[in-house]
Recover the amino acids of this structure.
């Protein structure tokens, strides 16, 4: 139960400096107002734990449909009759109280018959869901003027200089995906062998400095949140004007830009299988979500669990896979098999680049 409490403390810490107006404000059509994320976190917990496992009625009748992420695209979320202000805060607390009651009644053991309970799946899912929404909230917080928070490092740590150094990975059979035991999402399974040709992959993600060279030589657009400033570049997140730091990993680039950068560098993006096969050797994972060349597809033997809308409805050639994790990603979410996905034009996510090439 302790980790759920820690995640909630992290969520509340993130919004601590904000007033209700800021929680309700629509800052961008591609990002939910924070009030929606908060209500959705509580509603997801209520749906899966209090209602599905605990068999209890929801606290607010039909309210849950406004927190359904598929039914309510981001651009509509500011208009929904969702909970706000004090009502929102008490919903978070009331659901949590009921969750703890239900958790005290159930067996989350290895042998639990219900796959939602076995090995604590539902507990791990709630925890991961809340922590992943913390990252979505941090995407929005980039747009909040003068946002400050003592509890968080609100930006990337300096990466090692991105030099030409690459790691060689042997060809042959590599095991990809999450093992059968332990928490993972449905899209990470089944673990399976893939045949890879030998390849090389950058030891570190691409830095701002290297990306700037690419921009200067090709006329490529600057990453999101960069603005010209006295002949240099400034980072304008949280309404700041701090100089762009060369050694930091480049962030907020689209898949198309990542792809064009890789070509300029005489390389290419790694496939997600290559990324995972190399992941044990990479240093400095966790600086940026790294775009891969791969479409978000089902692995062989995929079975939707616990609901189709988590992964299955996104499979196809519309979304590209990102691997790794960013400074905004909680450490417990970063595992070698974790697959993130987004539209290739998106830049509000903490997305960066690591290149590969054939050996
Ligand atoms: Fe969600």
């Amino acid at each position: 139960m302790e980790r759920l409490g820690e995640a909630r403390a992290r969520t509340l810490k993130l919004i601590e400096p904000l007033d209700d107006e800021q929680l309700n404000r629509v800052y961008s059509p591609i990002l939910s107002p924070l009030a929606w994320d908060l209500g959705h976190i509580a509603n997801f917990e209520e749906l899966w734990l209090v209602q599905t496992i605990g068999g209890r009625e929801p606290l607010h009748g039909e309210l849950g449909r406004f927190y359904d992420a598929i039914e309510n695209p981001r651009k509509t979320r500011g208009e929904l009759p969702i909970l706000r202000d004090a009502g929102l805060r008490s919903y978070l607390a009331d659901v949590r109280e009921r969750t703890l009651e239900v958790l005290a009644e159930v067996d989350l053991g290895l042998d639990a018959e219900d796959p939602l309970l076995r090995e604590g799946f539902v507990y791990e899912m709630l925890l991961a869901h809340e922590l992943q929404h913390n990252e979505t909230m941090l995407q929005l917080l980039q747009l909040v003027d003068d946002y400050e928070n003592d509890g968080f490092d609100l930006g990337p740590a300096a990466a090692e200089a991105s030099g030409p150094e690459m790691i060689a990975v042997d060809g042959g059979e590599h095991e990809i995906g999450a093992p059968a035991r332990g928490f993972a999402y449905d899209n990470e399974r089944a673990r399976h062998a893939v045949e890879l040709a030998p390849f090389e992959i950058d030891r570190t993600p691409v830095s701002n400095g290297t990306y700037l060279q690419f921009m200067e030589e090709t006329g490529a657009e600057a990453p999101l949140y960069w603005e010209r400033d006295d002949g240099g570049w400034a980072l304008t997140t949280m309404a700041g004007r701090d100089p762009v730091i060369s050694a930091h990993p480049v962030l907020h680039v689209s898949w198309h830009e990542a792809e064009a950068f890789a070509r300029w560098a005489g390389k290419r993006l790694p496939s997600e299988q290559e990324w995972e096969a190399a992941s044990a050797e990479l240093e400095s994972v966790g600086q940026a979500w790294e775009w891969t060349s791969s479409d978000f597809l089902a692995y062989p033997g995929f079975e939707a669990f616990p609901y189709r809308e988590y992964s299955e409805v996104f499979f196809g050639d519309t979304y590209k896979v990102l691997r790794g994790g960013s400074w905004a990603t909680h450490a417990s979410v970063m595992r070698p098999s974790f697959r993130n996905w987004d539209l290739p034009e998106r830049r509000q996510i903490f997305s960066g680049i690591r290149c590969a090439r054939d050996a």
